[in-house]
Amino acid sequence: VDLQVEEEDVQALLNCGDDHNIKDFDSFNFCPRTVPYRHMPCYVLKMFEDLNFIKRWRIKKNVLARFTLYVKKGYRDAPYHNWMHAFSVAHFAYLLIKNLRLVEEEHMTELQAFVFLVSCLCHDIDHRGTNNSFQTKCGTVLASLYSSEGSVMERHHLAQSMCILNTEGCNIFETLKGTLYSEALDLLRNNILATDLASHFRSVDDQREITRCYDKKNPSHRKLLHAMLMTCCDLNDQTKNWKVSKQTAEQIYDEFFSQGDLEKSMGTAPIEMMDREKASIPDLQVQFITNLVLPLFTNLAMVFPSVKSIVQIIERNREVWRIATAIFQKYSEKGMTGMDILLNAR
Ligand SMILES: Cc1nc2ccc(C(=O)NCC(C)C)cc2n2c(-c3cc(OC(C)(C)C)ccc3Cl)nnc12
Ligand SMILES: [Mg+2]
Ligand SMILES: [Zn+2]
What we know:
Blueprint: H1 7-14, H2 40-50, H3 53-56, H4 61-74, H5 83-99, H6 110-122, H7 132-137, H8 141-146, H9 152-165, H10 179-193, H11 197-212, H12 219-234, H13 242-265, H14 281-303, H15 308-332, H16 338-344
Helix pairs in contact: 1-4, 2-4, 2-5, 4-9, 5-6, 5-12, 6-10, 9-10, 11-12, 11-14, 12-14, 14-15
The protein binds the ligand Cc1nc2ccc(C(=O)NCC(C)C)cc2n2c(-c3cc(OC(C)(C)C)ccc3Cl)nnc12, magnesium ion (MG) and zinc ion (ZN).
Residues 85, 89, 123-124, 195, 234 line the site of zinc ion.
């Protein structure tokens, strides 16, 4: 990881002080994407502070500051899979830990909660804006490294995270003694690999099964729940107001359509979802919410009843996409493509 973070940036971050005290920062209604970009690293430190991780794990603040800046630098400026996405995913983990009282209610140990937040920050490091099937289809370097095990991008995100932990002055796990250290790395690995869509689909039946009669003492129930929590964080934009879910859909399809253009230029036909000539964004969003987002959060609400209010927000957003679908059908007879309709629908 040939990233360089200036020591003066580390010092500036250490002195960012708490002159930022956004109201409702710890509420599910708060949208992390409204935090000014330059203040995001400061709010990462705030989250660790507020959850008492710094004291509990005796983390040196300058190590946490340096680690945070290396992670931020590890993200590329892809339309969606960028540092802001990582910050929003980590913020949702902070909300879950705090508002669902995951440690107090013994759904997570203190170590699992600490590594859960770190995993969310790191889970998409060095994402190139292309998905796993693109890596294998185009025989990228990452595919040659990881395609035999699957989860190509996720294994790369993990490898990049390990590089940062092994960078001088960045190892926030250094104070974890003995087995705690290796346990933290195992948790980091499981959490990041859980954000692979394919592994989510493989475990979704078991998730539905265990959430009907959840047993927080059962290790396999806990492991599945932690994987669900990672996926929920990765989808946190769907739990916010319509403006956020529309904005992130634009970013995601910006990325998907660029991949589709790339695949066309390489002589392979992209799947419809990535073909800007064929994709109907509202339709795809209704399908994605119906087939993936709602079942996941509905299952989570079986274990945490307070999540039901989030399920209602997701359902309301789906209704708006359904209306957009109707408008889309009307306009697309006039030959307008998905993006300009979406942009016109501002
Ligand atoms: C708003 C929104 N629409 C999406 C529409 C389609 C897809 C997609 O890949 N469909 C492929 C077929 C086979 C299902 C993903 C979408 N998506 C994600 C996302 C989630 C991911 O994985 C977890 C978190 C494990 C689900 C991984 C990557 C991404 Cl981009 N995040 N937000 C979105
Ligand atoms: Mg990912
Ligand atoms: Zn992600």
